């Protein structure tokens, strides 16, 4: 695995930053607090999540969200890993936090927007799923614990500053346990403990099974008793079957006789069937005859009444004109009458005017005398015109009166015509009713005759039916008696069959149980052998394997440890080795030297050599490859000569990529690439420099 780029957004003192990492030895340089270690924490966060850390330690103060995106190359594939951080909301709707006793309490921060992109294909995961997928991609064979950092990553790739020298001061048992977990040697011990626990369980189970097989002799004795009783019970069952079959034959003959009697009874029942029903039908027929005769008589009386009313109306003459024609003429005459009234008004005014002139003898307009003879002629002409129009009006008024009388006659004709049609229709209906009633009366009389004859036949057949019925009842009583006798035998037979079935089932169960217990006895013997094998052979073999592996790892570790210590400390009189608990021991001129007496640079060299040895051993035993190494402030207390050797040391490791975080400017000459980190206005920025 090598890192190709890291992109940060609102992570601690970084606002928006993207750093592209080349291959080779890389130095992140900057002052204390500039933000160097933040890059390493961001890398670990992107890969494995928060672990037991809180999101508030990574998310920038005052920001509600942030993210880290890491681009890797592993197994020949490009992989992008992205994790986001999001500040939750507290009660009251506060976005960033809430007040508690006057202090601002930051809201909780959780992971969000987690995804992995492999060769351009992106898949979203939950935070815990992300860690599981990353471990698979990196081929880290270790348990998935969302609340812990990756052990392999911490020991094989990344060494935080605070953990560099911590391994030297750890208690021996804790140090050994840590190394055993990192190298997965602890699994041998777990396997041995599991084997012993399983062996103990197997012994207990074998003992439990043996106690259960103590009933085997008792079961076998019961089997023999059942096998002796069964023949006598089966012989008694055969006798009951024979008795039941004999009685069943007698019942069959009686049922044949009953069938014949029932057929005869059915035949006679058809003749004697329903005397009461026939009588009821006869009474209904007679009542229907009476009702129809009454209906015919009533209909004839009503028909006579209707015919009398039709005769009273007499013949009616249809008017010459229709109602619409009369209405049209009446409307036209009324229009003429109105015209005559208007003309008479005008002529009356002219006549009155001429009469006034004649009476006065002069013209009131010009005061000229009037010629009496001339105006007398005018007066006579005006009177003649007035009289002519008056006569025309009178003639028209009489015409209107005649038309109104005609309209009244037409209405009277229509009324009488309607009455006559209604009476004639009703009379026709009454005639039809009488005809229908007469027809139904004939049918009812025929039905009365037929029912009377059926009643006579049924009364004669009833006596014969009663005699057959008595014989049939006697046969039924004999069948019931025989069936009761048969049922008693069948009941005893069923009880005996049940007893035999119970015995047989019990026998089968006992044989199965005996076979099972025999099998359990053999299984208990096998379990005992398995328990003995697990303790004597398997656990012992695991213990030898563990010891062999541990010794091989210890030799490999000690070789690497001595190699890197000698490389860093050029003092041929000093040497290092480890004891059985992997405790580092320093010797000078073959005498052990207390670690506390070492100089600061020597202690740092000792810690770095120990971590490099651990790094190499873990990488080899984990089969994860040796492409990347990350060191945080590894040269604390180093001399300039020791710092200068760091480049050669890292190149000796043969890594594709090594990342060092340090404030030591002397390391610049030992690396291939330099990135300088500066903090301006509270924000960290990364600038690429020249080596």
UniProtKB/TrEMBL annotation:
GO terms for biological process: double-strand break repair. Residues 5-230 form the Rad50/SbcC-type AAA domain. Residues 185-350, 379-406, 441-527 form a coiled coil. GO terms for molecular function: ATP hydrolysis activity. Pfam families: AAA_23. Gene3D superfamilies: Helix hairpin bin, P-loop containing nucleotide triphosphate hydrolases. Keywords: Coiled coil. This is DNA double-strand break repair Rad50 ATPase. It comes from Methanosuratincola subterraneus.
